[in-house]
Design brief:
The structure is a single chain. This protein is of the alpha+beta class. It has three domains: 169 residues, no CATH class; 113 residues, Cyclophilin (Beta Barrel); 41 residues, no CATH class. 18% of the residues lie in helices and 29% in strands. The strands form five sheets. Strands 14-21-18-19-16-15-22 form a seven-stranded mixed β-barrel. Strands 9-8-11-6-1-13 form a six-stranded antiparallel sheet, with no helix packed on it. The chain has a five-stranded antiparallel sheet with strand order 4-5-12-7-10, covered by helices on one side. The relative contact order is 0.16.
Length: 338
């Protein structure tokens, strides 16, 4: 017993709702994309709120949410954009652990700010791992629920029995707001910066760009002033990292995301830093974005600071941190035994 999808479309438009975790690593050399959640921070917060490992599989949805019927009691947390969630017709908060009963119906509206939403389940979804991940790659039909987006009538069991969630009344945090009309997104300039003119680089760093309607899990196409190349946009194909900013021949940047291809033959002017990817992907079409150059060392410091904030939140909700748990394992000798 677990959940069943009662509705997966609005006005004839299918909802992009898929099972995702942190992604499928170690197979890019074989052409297998990483996949995984687009907004990792929101997904991790949802898991923290229901006492899961931060990489546990969640349901991710874009712009519109599905209707979900619970066939057993449990605990959930909803994060990401504001989708005005309701249970049995009554509004419920996001960024808070919620108890659900057998027969409850969870519904969502359209995103009021932001793009992506997440649902974490304390009882964990019964989804088989494929190459070490439960993530769905809809382009290849790998992983998740039959390798595709969720549809009306799909039922997924929980793989753990319902248990009491400790400190339920404390499992809430301030909701994130993604509706800013203007944003600054930090980037590290790429190894191929020498393939752009100085004017092209200054245009990229000093002008504003906006996501178009052509945005999905693979990447966000941007529009704005043309970024000038020196000798064309084509290069020998090389690896593409999360947040890589490709600039094809038309001079319009494309920010590559979790379902990106493993290699690409367009010049890359830079990469959105990991800490800023969540805010970037939650930007709706038309948001004015200015790219700001920072150093690798600055990006690393920002990442460490984010880890420290997450660690503090874990301590507040659980009483122990991941570091504490690792230390206890060493003291008990379990690590050595395993």
């Amino acid at each position: 017993m677990g959940i069943c999808i009662e509705k997966a479309d609005y006005y004839g438009r299918h909802i992009l709702a898929t099972i995702q975790d942190h992604g499928r690593y170690g197979y890019q050399n074989s052409g297998v994309t990483v996949s995984g959640v687009v907004d990792r921070r929101s997904a991790e917060l949802a898991n923290v709120l229901v006492d899961n490992e931060i990489s546990e599989a969640v349901i991710e949805f874009m712009l519109m949410g599905p209707a979900i019927r619970f066939t057993t009691a449990g605990y959930i947390a909803i994060t990401g954009a504001d989708f005005t969630p309701k249970i049995n017709g009554e509004s419920v908060p996001s960024y808070q652990a919620l108890a659900v009963k057998e027969g409850d119906l969870l519904e969502f509206g359209f995103a009021r700010n932001g793009v992506w939403g997440y649902i974490a389940f304390a009882e964990k979804l019964q989804i088989e791992e494929v190459m070490g991940s439960r993530s769905t790659n809809t382009r290849t039909g790998i992983g998740g629920f039959h390798g595709r987006a969720l549809e009306e009538g799909d039922c997924i069991e929980f793989r753990e029995k319902t248990k009491k969630l400790p400190n339920l009344d404390k499992r809430k945090i301030e909701s994130e707001f993604f509706g800013d009309k203007e944003k600054t997104i930090r980037v590290i300039l790429g190894l191929q910066r020498d393939r752009f003119t100085e004017k092209g680089i200054q245009t990229f760093l000093n002008e504003t760009y906006s996501p178009t309607s052509e945005c999905d899990r693979m990447g966000y196409r941007m529009e704005g002033p043309v970024i000038e190349h020196k000798d064309g946009a084509d290069i020998t194909s090389d690896g593409i990292s999360l947040g890589a900013i490709q600039v094809p021949g038309n001079g319009m940047p494309i920010v590559m995301l979790t379902d990106r291809q493993t290699t690409g033959g367009y010049t890359k002017i830079g990469t959105v830093i990991g800490v800023d990817v969540p805010d970037f992907v939650q930007s709706v079409a038309g948001t004015k974005i200015r790219f700001q150059e920072i150093t690798v060392e600055e990006a690393q410091d920002l990442y460490v600071a984010q880890l420290e904030r997450c660690n503090k939140l874990l301590q507040e909700l659980r009483g122990t941190t991941w570091i504490d748990k690792i230390k206890m394992l060493f003291r008990s000798g379990k690590v050595a035994k395993e």
